[in-house]
Specification:
The complex is a heterodimer of chains A (about 325) and B (about 525). Chain A has about 325 residues and is α/β, with parallel strands linked by helices. Chain A is about 30% helix and about 20% strand. A nine-stranded mixed beta sheet of chain A has the order 6-4-7-8-3-9-10-11-12, sandwiched between helices. A two-stranded antiparallel sheet of chain A has the order 1-2. In chain B, the strands form five sheets. In chain B, strands 11-12-13-14-15-16 form a six-stranded antiparallel barrel. A four-stranded antiparallel beta sheet of chain B has the order 5-8-6-7, sandwiched between helices. The chains are: A alpha/beta (about 325), B alpha+beta (about 525).
């Protein structure tokens, strides 16, 4: 059952219903009606629609039903193309691993996201078997939407991912209905927009990179590139760029922490950190998380508080 | 005069006359320039149109083009087709009447051999009707009374035979072959044997014929989308039944629409695996039917399996889901391919190449022959799959179709960039991993190779285990093409795959490229 407590939706109920809240059956009925209106299925039975848990307690507790609803449309706005893609790939990979169908349909439109094409070897890290991936290259949004809908009507798929520039309310409704019919989860991966138009998606996410905080990576300060106008705007960046001479900046050649792949230069990469903003959630409220994804283990977790982070990032890979 | 119509012929004008002679006989004669090419085209289109009667049609090549005499002919192999029209007589009547409806004066003949049919169509003395059928076994008697020109001989040969008093085909039959060959070459003997069926005469059909063919004809032209869709379903059902009885499944299909004005529209569809599921075959076309202009209606539709493969009979499973299995995916792939184009619905295979852009290849999912993957995808978690296997090297989730050069500031000799400018944006690097050295295979030795093949998706075969130990490559060009890849994260947390081209040498400015983004 969706957790409605504390949500704005619950408080929008007429007051008299709340007064009658003491009678469980009536309350249940009303809640069921709300669920029906929200497309969760109107049955009074407690069995909510199946969900895909993130495996992160904090997120799962927040989402209605305890995870990402299956058989629904979810929109992912990629403020960063790589991270948006990774988020979708992660979800699709888990859906494929979790169901008896392992195939994924992915409508790829690199120009919509202004990034390159999907790269097979990397998909393995997200649990996607490229041999089970049907890649569709659609020129237009309309073609991609059509392909997604066709995919959603084929009950042998685990997930359908579509890179879509614009999607109207009607089009999203169509996808949502098709997804409800077959129970296949649809993900719309979209470039970032400032004002997304309303859609019928069950959840809408905005994925971005996590900005580095100055002064927090205390363990390897001296290995960092320091520039006087850190955090300045791009015009200043550009000015700095042209003014900067090639060659080692001051302090740069001091050795970094031991055990790294190279002795000079910036510290190695750790787990990727994603800013996941759930800005619309049917039957729930919005939230914002910083997640961490470790490409070596495939583990996905909440990011530790900045101050709790280890001073030395996990062992960097050696030069190949 | 190239060709004359019946009225002119009655007035005494013959093909081959000069225009002045013809005008002298009939001053009001109307003429127009002969256009043999247009006539050939028309004949070819008509032959196409005849596909409604038989899947096997061909314009008579020998009588077209420069040697076209205004009386071209079309071959139809109606073996096994006539019963669909109520017998050979009825078939001929239908053909001739329909051609008349299109404005053509046509004569037709059905005979056991092409040669006999050719002669019979031209030299039968027609009375009420303009077609004839030569009964089985009657070929010899029928053509014996016809002029020797009916043997499709060159005009000079005909003239030569007439000069020695041989006018009828029957006159030639008892002649000793050796004498004929000595005098006129093998032409006469060959033609005679062909007409009598003693020598096979292959005629290549216009379209590749296929025995898996169904057709539906309408009494009145239909134009409603629902009717056409229903007709396509019926055709698919019939075709599926034929295919099943032969133990085959269709791989390529052609759906042809015959319009009353003689034009033919065709739709093609392919399947990624052999199928004889009527509903699936019909669905391949229903999404495309809106491309067909109904116009004045459609009076016949044919569905042909132009390519088919063996498909063993399947037992209907008790559980519907397991029955559809991979077929469900294949059908989806077919629908997508048919609408978006086969090249746009692809799967990826791993190819053995050091260069990341060549390490994968995309191939159409409906392709009949797929490039053999040179390496299997590793399943499961890349790390956990095997402890003995070296760590998988990190690869970007999205790879740019071609590396984009960036303006970078990097310490020498071999550090990752401190900052770079890409697409007019400045990225300041906070973290970096690397380098991972990727060199082209040693047998691809040249810069030219790299440049020309960079766009080439086809990866090279080979056996390579040397990603990083080509330090002292002998050829200088390889050194120039060595790439040192770094995984970098900028201050905003975005991750990129950048590389420096070539080995550092003092005094030269290294070139940096962005090749992909990570998640």
């Amino acid at each position: 059952m969706p957790r409605l407590s504390g949500s704005a939706r619950n408080s929008s109920l007429p007051p008299q219903n709340r007064e009658n809240g003491g009678i469980p059956t009536e309350l249940e009925e009303l809640k069921a009606r709300i669920r029906r209106l929200e497309g969760f299925g109107g049955s009074l039975v407690e069995t909510a629609r199946p969900v895909l848990p993130f495996g992160v307690a904090e997120i799962d507790a927040h989402l209605p039903g305890g995870g990402l609803m299956r058989g629904a449309l979810h929109e992912v706005f990629a403020a960063d193309a790589g991270i948006g893609t990774a988020f979708c790939a992660l979800l699709a990979g888990r859906l494929a691993a979790d169901t008896e169908n392992h195939s994924i349909l992915w409508c790829e439109r690199p120009w919509a996201l202004d990034a390159g094409a999907l790269y097979g070897p990397a998909l393995l890290q997200f649990g996607i078997d490229p041999a089970r991936l049907i890649l569709v290259r659609a020129r237009r949004d309309a073609d991609a939407l059509w392909a997604m809908e066709e995919g959603l009507r084929c009950d042998r798929l685990a997930a359908v991912v579509g890179e879509i520039t614009d999607i109207s309310l009607t089009a999203s409704r169509r996808l949502q209905l098709a997804a409800e019919d077959t129970g296949i989860t649809a993900l719309a991966l979209r470039p970032k927009t400032d004002k997304p138009v309303p859609s019928a998606a069950a959840t809408r996410w905005r994925l971005d990179a996590v900005e580095h905080q100055t002064g927090h990576q205390t363990g390897h300060e001296q290995a960092h590139i320091r520039s006087p106008n850190r955090g300045a705007n791009q015009a200043n960046d550009n000015a700095a760029f042209t003014g900067m001479q090639p060659g080692p900046p001051g302090g740069h050649l001091q050795s970094g922490p031991p055990g790294r792949g190279f002795q000079s230069g910036p510290p190695g990469l750790g787990a990727a950190r994603w800013q996941a903003e759930l800005f619309r959630c049917r039957g729930g409220i919005s939230a914002n998380w910083t997640m961490e994804w470790d490409d070596e283990t495939g583990n996905f977790s909440m990011a530790a508080k900045i101050c709790d982070r280890p001073t030395v990032p996990s062992a960097a890979r050696l030069a190949g | 005069m190239h060709a004359v119509n019946a009225a002119a012929e009655q007035a005494g004008i013959r093909a081959g006359m000069t225009l002045a002679d013809a005008r002298a006989i009939l001053p009001e004669l109307r003429t127009s320039e002969a256009d043999p090419e247009a006539e050939t085209r028309t004949l070819s289109r008509l032959s196409d149109w005849c596909g409604r009667f038989s899947p096997w049609t061909a314009p008579d090549e020998e009588n077209s083009g420069a040697s076209f005499t205004g009386a071209g002919s079309i071959w139809l192999d109606v073996t096994g087709c006539a019963h669909l029209f109520g017998g050979e007589e009825a078939l001929m009547r239908d053909i001739i009447n329909r051609l008349a409806g299109l404005g053509f004066t046509a004569f037709g003949a059905i005979a056991d051999t092409p040669g006999a049919a050719w002669a019979a169509a031209r030299y039968t003395s027609y009375k009420r009707r303009r077609w004839t059928t030569v009964r089985k076994g009657q070929v010899r008697d029928t053509i014996a009374s016809m002029p020797i020109a009916g043997l499709r001989l060159a005009p000079a040969t005909v003239a030569g035979l007439q000069a020695v008093g041989l006018r009828r085909i029957g006159d030639l039959m008892p002649m000793p072959r050796a004498a004929l060959v000595d005098r006129f070459g093998s032409e006469i003997a060959d033609r005679l044997d062909q007409a009598l069926g003693d020598r096979p005469e292959p005629v290549s059909p216009l379209a590749l014929s296929s025995p898996w063919y169904t057709r539906i004809a309408f009494a009145e032209p239909v134009g409603r989308a629902e009717d056409i869709t229903e007709a396509v379903r019926t055709l698919a059902r019939d075709l599926a039944a034929i295919l099943e009885s032969d133990g085959l499944g269709a791989r390529r299909l052609t759906l042809a629409f015959y319009h009353p004005d003689g034009t033919v529209d065709r739709l093609e569809a392919g399947t990624s695996r052999a199928s004889r599921d009527a509903a699936h075959l019909a669905r391949l076309f229903t999404s495309k039917l809106d491309r067909i202009e109904a116009g004045f209606g459609i009076d016949a539709i044919t569905l042909t399996a132009t390519a088919s493969e063996k498909l063993s009979p399947t037992q209907a499973a008790l559980d519907r889901r397991s029955e559809t299995g991979d077929a469900g995916i294949a059908e989806l792939a077919d629908r997508l391919s048919n609408r978006l184009g086969g090249e746009n619905v692809v799967q990826l295979t791993l190819q053995e190449s050091h260069l990341p852009e060549r390490a994968i290849a995309a191939f159409p999912i409906t392709a009949r022959t797929r490039p053999a993957p040179s390496a299997p995808w590793q399943h499961g978690s890349p790390l956990r799959s095997s402890l003995s296997r070296p760590l998988p090297r990190p690869r970007p989730l999205r790879l740019l179709s071609r590396p984009e050069e960036v303006e970078a500031v990097a310490p020498v000799p071999d550090d990752p960039p401190v900052m770079f400018r890409w697409r007019k944006q400045v990225f300041r690097i906070e973290h970096a991993d690397g380098p991972e050295r990727i060199a082209p295979e040693w047998w691809n030795d040249g810069l030219g190779m790299m440049k020309t093949e960079r766009e080439d998706a086809g990866a090279r075969d080979g056996d390579g285990d040397s990603d990083g130990d080509l330090e002292a490559a002998p050829a200088e060009s390889i050194q120039d093409n060595i790439r040192d890849y770094y995984r970098v994260e900028d201050r905003r947390g975005r991750r990129f795959w950048v590389y420096r081209e070539g080995i550092y040498s003092p005094g030269t400015q290294p070139h940096w490229y962005v090749h992909g983004v990570f998640g």
